[in-house]
Amino acid sequence: MDRLSQLPTLRITPTKKLTLTYRGKNYQGVAGDTLATALYANGIRIFSRSIKYHRPRGLYSLNGESGNCLMEVDATPNIRTEQTPLRNGMIVVPQNVIGTPEWDFMGIMDMFHWAMPAGFYYKIFHKPYWLWPFFMGIIRKAAGIGRINPSRREGSSDELYLNCEVCVVGGGPAGISAALTAAGKGLRVILLEARPWLGGFYDYRTIEYTKGVPLYKRAVQLVEQVEDTPDVRIFPHTSLIGFYNNNLITARQKGHEKDSFDERYIEIRAQSVVVATGCTERPLIFENNERPGVMQIGCAHRLAQTYGLLPGKYAVFSVGHDLGLEAAIDLSGLGLNVLCVADSRSDGQDPELLEKLTKINIPVLKGWVASKAHGKKHIKKVTLSAIEGTKHKDFLCDLLVASTGLTNARSPIFLTQAKMVHDPDSGLFVPKKLPNKVYVAGRFLGFHDPLSIETSGELAGLAAAIDCGVSAKSQAKEVKRRLEDMPGPIRASQFTRIPGRGAHDFICFDEDVTIQHIHQAYEMGFDNAELAKRFTAAGTGPTQGGISGHNLPLVISQYNADSDGSIVPTTVRPPLTPTLLGTYASRNPNPYKQTPLHETQKNSGAVFHRMGVWKRARYFSKDYSARDEIENVRNNVGLIDVSTLGKFRVFGPDSVKALERVYVGDMSSIPEGKVKYSAMCNDDGCLIDDGVITRRGVNDYYLTTSTGRSGVTVEWIRYHTRYDGWDFHIVNLTEVYGAINLAGPRAREVFQKITDTNLSNEAFPFMGYREFTLKDTVPVRVMRLGFVGELSYEIHIPASYTQTVWEWLLGAGEEFGICPFGLEAQNALRLEKGHVIIGQESEIRTTLHDLGLGFLLYRKKHEANTVGVFALKNTEYQQGRLKLVGFKMDSPLKTPHDGSVVVDSEIRGYICTARYSYTLGESIGLALVESHLAKKGTQLEIFDAGAGNKRLYAKVVSTSFYDAEGKRLRM
User: Fold this and answer.
1) 501 within 8 A of 285, measured Cβ to Cβ
2) Cα separations in angstroms, 67 against 36, 542, 543, 935
3) For residues 332 and 321, what is the distance between their CA atoms, to the nearest angstrom?
4) CA angle, residues 406, 410, 414, in degrees to nearest 5
């Protein structure tokens, strides 16, 4: 097909040729083409076959509203070819056909459409039940389109996590105006646009903006302004995925040839958001309205003005708004033979457009619409009918440009859970009330006059700026007054379809849902749009209501004879844009945190494992039983890096109240110089964290949490005190302080060498807290604890001094054989002592009572309203719960793997941790088992996958296997 190569609106470079392969044959496109436009230029008119009836489908839209152009591209299925830029050497394969798109063997299914009424699969295939497996196999083979190639590695991906004051969704005139206005107030703005370029519906239109300036030139002016604005960051070819609470935006960006990624995931935190996504077209429903050769106004118009392709030779227009008249005039001037324009409106047309149509001898039939497209695989003739159905006219043509009106691209606003109502004047679904700090602008609100569109964007930009603290209320009032004096939303056609049987009048192209199906569903009681959608599957296909989203509620309302106020759109859910799973995973960069001792431990031979967000030393040798490390702590002295523990300061007049709210213990009685062990629970009384707290002064507390909770403790406390108005503050010191646990019977002797502070048992007892200096230089906070069951000191050190103190301790303990130990040794040591690790000996259902930690609950603080206390009191004696028990294996050398299950005739629990104890010379462990198995002396039967079909056996014992009296940690 010859290109229109001299148009000023073109986005292609006709002289730069690119090749693609389609069905094994080479074709040529040009730079700037999409795959669909390149195929269209080569005479391809049938792009796919429909899912159910296998009817031929062609190019209908260019914004992805329909699934007509889904194809397999470079071995990736379901690519929207009308939105995919052409690249040299692409291999394109049609989908959902047996044979070719032109001659599909499964096309015979269309002859049996009468046998597939609405909901037939709900009523037929499950009876008789014994035949269901047979039907299920057939349905699964027939379901879906495209085939996944598991061995194919998708292209490169990337991710961005951004913050800004204002995020604008939509790069048309309203969106650009909003971005320029907000950036003009000194704010950081992010602008997202789904197309590869900005400009919106100005981009391809030649009608005048002002005298002598066509709309496409105005688009150039706006784009140049925003591109030259340093505070606006533009993301073209970027589609919204989700819109969540507190203005969290997620999006997917398609990469350009020169980009380092093929697809990029973007997450944006914005203080305020402006949605200026404009409008798409509302399809006209008539017989065979999805036949190749039928396309929307914007598709036909952009094919010519953007891609230099006349969409056909002889055309009929059936429209319901002035953009259709404008396109008919424009395309006629480019060489398209426009035979007739049928307008469903009886009046309200722009008189200037009507005059131009008269001058170029294009007849206009007011109150007429297309009623049928003729032609088996491509339209050859169109029947136009008067709306009342009394008159008919036939036209031979190869193109029918059909659209009954506009519908705003409202999906982003739907995701904010704003209530949408139908405006009878504009014909659009508009938000009744928007969430805080979210605004809409432009054609989304029904504006069509260019100045009104831009001014509404300016007003939205000012409102967003005010949300960000900018003083601009007087300016916003002036812009609002100016907007009120401009042309507002115009009256739109509410026409949907002419009466008829509707057997081939498609309301949803994706799922082959017709008006007849909707009527059948309605007759069966599915009398609202949401129910009809689910029963007929309308709007549940690849484009998720892109075609049917507006018409379905209108059709249902016509059946119900509803007023406009009761026309309710169907629900929209994320993701709005199909995104590769590989894009969500991105490059898998594996980011992690390192403690101040990372390099020092690495040089000592540490083997690191990922533990949550941290890299931590698991072993210090290739002996993964860590025997030498364990025995050295039990007999001499060792040290371990515990810098990952959460460390927090809570202070202020109401700090005790805050701590009482989240900790189950009595926080008011903590004396200075002592630490208190306590726990946090959720509302169900289930353990979520444990740690120690000390009082450093009046209303001033220092506390530690587990590594896993260090990142969320601040929010947890704030969340549970948010309505109390208490005066307190929380400071996260997790990465401000490093921490070393010095443990073993020689720990005091080693530690005493680097400090003048008296460390005797009398001066610094078990569960004590002291602050002093090491070598008169380094200030430290020290807790005397016993997690591994030995005399130990947890030393908290300013992060920059941590490596120095580690080296001092190693030097001081050299004569005692001091060695570092890792997490595996610590795990075995604390197991021998029976101490619990959150998430290892607990799970989401495990309460304090289940773990034998009920003694931590202080029952007398009635006014604290501690989180989880009510549940703890009501589950204390609850039967049938899993209880934590200790066990010893009958065979000392057989140790089950963690996670092995406790069984009899059923699963009765599981092994949390099990190790061979070199200290005790036997295999021990902790398990969560049903309460009737928790009694001491009970035999446990264990299934371990590593033991094959043989069962392992153990006996329930106390959870404290080593030094039950605690003499060693108190010595």
Assistant:
1) no
2) 12, 6, 6, 63
3) 18
4) 150
φ, ψ at 619 (rounded to 5°): -140, 165
pLDDT of residue 333: 95
Asked whether the beta carbons of 559 and 398 are under 8 A apart, the reply is no
Burial label for 103, CB within 10 Å (0-12, 13-18, 19+), is exposed
Q: Which fold has domain 506-566?
A: Arc Repressor Mutant, subunit A (1.10.10)
Helix (H, G, I), strand (E, B) or coil at 743: strand
Superfamily of domain 286-403: FAD/NAD(P)-binding domain (3.50.50.60)
Nearest in space to 595 (alpha carbons), one of 802, 814, 448: 802
Beta bridge pairs of residue 646:
705
Question: 598-644+736-830 has which CATH code?
Answer: 3.30.1360.120
Predicted TM-score (pTM) of the model is: 0.77
**Which amino acid, residue 799?**
A
pLDDT at 563: 55
- DSSP reduced 3-state for 408: strand
Q: Read out DSSP for 433-482?
A: SPPTTEEE-GGGGT--SHHHHHHHHHHHHHHHHHHTT---HHHHHHHHHH
DSSP 340-361: EEEES-SS---HHHHHHHHHTT
Identify the residue whose tokens are 């006059």: 449
pLDDT given at position 561: 77
- The terminus-to-terminus CA distance of the chain in angstroms comes to 93
Buried b (16+ CB within 10 A) or exposed e, 23-60: eeeebebbbbbbbbbbbbbeebbbbbbbbbbbbbbbbb
**CA 489 to chain CA mean position, Å:** 34
- Position 585 scores a pLDDT of 82
CA dihedral 531, 536, 538, 541 (to 10 degrees): 120
**pLDDT given at position 562:** 64
How confident is the model over 744-764, as pLDDT tens digits? 999 999 999 999 999 999 999
SS3 (DSSP) at 521: helix
Decide if 875 contacts 883 (C-beta within 8 A): no
Q: Do domains 286-403 and 646-732 have the same CATH topology?
A: no
Residues 324, 354 contacting (CB under 8 angstroms): no
Is there a contact between 20 and 89 (Cβ–Cβ < 8 Å)? yes
Upstream peptide bond of 575 is cis (omega within 30 degrees of 0): yes
Domain 13-122 CATH class label: alpha beta
- CATH ID of 157-280+408-484, from 3.30.470.10, 1.10.1670.10, 3.40.50.300, 3.50.50.60: 3.50.50.60
The residues, any chain, with a CB within 8 Å of residue 913's CB and separated by 6 or more, are: 827, 831, 837, 840, 841, 898, 925, 926
Domain ranges of the chain: 13-122, 157-280+408-484, 286-403, 506-566, 598-644+736-830, 646-732, 879-971
Compute the distance between CA of residue 167 and CA of residue 435 in angstroms, rounded to an integer: 15
Q: Which of 201, 133, 148 is nearest to 173 (CA)?
A: 201
pLDDT value, residue 564: 54
Cα of 243 vs its chain's centroid, Å: 9
Give residue-wise pLDDT tens across range 242-291: 999 999 999 999 998 888 899 999 999 999 999 999 999 999 999 999 99
Percentages helix, strand, coil for the chain (3-state, rounded to 5) are: 25, 30, 45
The residue among 675, 723, 718, 722 whose CA lies nearest residue 695 is: 675
Q: Are 833 and 789 in contact (CB under 8 A)?
A: yes
User: What pairing do the DSSP bridges indicate for beta strands 189-192 and 675-681?
Assistant: unpaired
Determine the CATH number of domain 646-732: 3.30.70.1400
> b/e string for 729-760 if b means 16 or more Cβ within 10 A?
ebeebbeebbbbbbbbbbbbbbbebbbebebe
CATH 2.40.30.110 assigned to 879-971: yes
The parts of the chain modelled with pLDDT lower than 50 are none
User: Given this model, what pLDDT does residue 427 score?
Assistant: 85
